[in-house]
Design brief:
The chain is mainly alpha-helical. The chain has 21 helices and no strands. The longest helix has about 35 residues.
Length: about 475
């Protein structure tokens, strides 16, 4: 469909622009604070755009149109609005970061001071795993799209995307990510809206409006089968995303002001209305057109090809490319910040370590994507892990209700249990197991953490000693 020569020429033109931006912003990498946090002078507008852009991942390009096509807009709502709620929760959490962790770099380093190395290491692993998981799902979607358009040597094309993204962000760090991500987000939004307008104009408004409900009507919002097979599990895993993503923490530290919370309120609505909505409309257009596909996750691409032609598919290719670059750059930089700040003692090497970490994450993403794993398995693996720490993170940063033993022991026990349950559900096509796993991770783990915290404090008080976490809090250990 697209020859390798055509694809490489398009990539050359695309990345020439972003190499130029990266070169122009190279001086933002001269110090640790500039490279990792944009000298704490990140603008509200660029952060708002990148909040939306860094959440437009591989799942965004596949699940909303698939659900709008299969289950109607009620399913799209269950996928979309928990993410908006997650953004609003992080908006509040960013005010906590500003008040409690001024001049900080990472949440995990603050956790280290309060709860010690072991709990901090748990957070570092989960945060990095969450960032890597988003990168992996996105590049798996890239490979899926390349296979759909029958591109020659998709592994080579994916490698070029990874290398070029790392190169243009090499010098300027998060400032480059903020600028390039903002440009890519605006371009993605305009292209998605253009595809929707094109599709509705081609199909006709009457034909489009008749298919708005999908196969199920919105009155089925609380349909038991939908709730237990998709809706509730999706809601609990997706609401946790922003709070458990180091990319959002990094933007909060980079703004370092008392209005940073606005980026998540505005960015959340931007994401839902101007990105998720147009992508979902493509699924409805596919339904109205009568598109059929054995793989429902690519039905909107089949529609673009059959109804609108190769030009529409080329526009979608640019959207997919924007998504891949933004996700690798923003989430890769954030995970690299944890390695560069928390694990690098000599600050002279922080920027170098961050750059090398981004390159390694890109390499991992490329290797994993070539195996073409099921994107659902990747998503539920990292999302189930992060759900365990969602409520615990709010409690451990904003309150004094938990201690080291409670956080550590509850997660050591329940992360493996919930992960096994989720994978069991996927393997045996038993979605109720995914619901059990998400529910236990969301409520069981913090409940157990609280009980253990209270029990160890009572035990320490009756024994005349202090729990380890209290000693560390008062003496500054860790």
């Amino acid at each position: 469909m697209f020859s390798l020569t055509t694809i490489l020429s398009a990539l050359a033109a695309y990345f020439a622009v972003f190499f130029g931006i990266g070169w122009f912003l190279r001086k933002w990498g001269s110090t640790k604070q500039k490279y990792l946090l944009a000298d704490r002078r990140a603008g509200l507008m660029e952060c708002t755009l990148l909040v939306a852009g860094c959440w437009t991942a591989g799942l965004t390009m596949i699940v909303p149109p698939q659900q709008a096509y299969l289950n109607g807009w009620v399913s799209w709502i269950w996928f979309t609005y928990p993410q908006l709620l997650g953004m609003l929760i992080f908006s509040w959490f960013s005010t906590v970061i500003y008040k409690k962790i001024r001049s900080g770099y990472t949440i995990s380093s603050y956790i280290n001071k309060r709860y010690g190395n072991q709990v901090s290491f748990l957070y570092q692993l989960v945060f990095c795993f969450s960032g890597l998981g988003l990168i992996l799902t996105t590049f798996t979607a890239v490979l899926k799209f390349l296979a759909f358009i029958k591109a020659d040597n998709p592994a080579l094309v994916t490698a070029i995307i990874v290398v070029c993204t790392v190169v243009y962000s090499w010098k300027g760090g998060i400032k480059t990510s903020l600028v390039t991500g903002s440009v890519q987000t605006v371009l993605t939004t305009l292209l998605l809206i253009a595809l929707c307008v094109w599709g509705i104009g081609n199909q006709g408004w009457d034909a489009f409006s008749r298919s708005l409900t999908g196969l199920n009507h919105v009155t089925n919002f609380f349909d038991w089968r939908l709730l237990t097979t998709f809706a509730l599990t999706s809601a609990m895993t997706l609401i946790t995303g922003p709070l458990m993503s180091p990319s959002h923490h990094q933007k909060s530290f980079a703004q370092d002001n008392d209005i940073s919370w606005k980026a998540w309120i505005r960015g959340g609505w931007f994401y839902c209305i101007l990105i998720q909505l147009p992508v979902g409309i493509l699924g409805t257009l596919a339904l109205g057109y009568g598109t059929k596909s054995a793989d429902s996750s690519v039905v909107h691409w089949v529609y673009l090809q059959d109804a609108l032609g190769i030009g529409a598919l080329a526009l979608m290719a640019v959207v997919i490319l924007n998504t891949a670059c933004t996700i690798l750059d923003s989430h890769g930089n954030a995970a690299a910040t944890i390695v560069a700040h928390d694990w690098t003692k000599n600050e002279k090497y922080s920027t170098l370590v961050s750059r090398l970490t981004l390159a390694v994450l890109g390499l991992i993403a490329w290797i994993v994507s070539t195996y073409n794993f099921d994107i659902t398995y990747i998503f539920f693996t990292y999302s189930t892990v992060r759900v365990n720490l969602f409520i615990i993170t709010m409690l451990s940063v904003a309150t004094d209700k938990l201690n080291q033993q409670g956080i550590l022991y509850s997660n050591v026990v329940l992360i493996p249990v919930t992960l096994w349950m989720g994978l069991h559900g996927l393997w045996y096509k038993a979605p109720e197991w995914n619901l059990y796993a998400a529910t236990i991770a969301m409520f069981g783990t913090p409940g157990l953490a609280y009980l253990i915290s209270q029990a160890t404090r009572i035990g320490a008080a009756s024994g005349g000693g202090e729990p380890l976490s209290e000693v560390q809090r008062s003496s500054g250990l860790g």
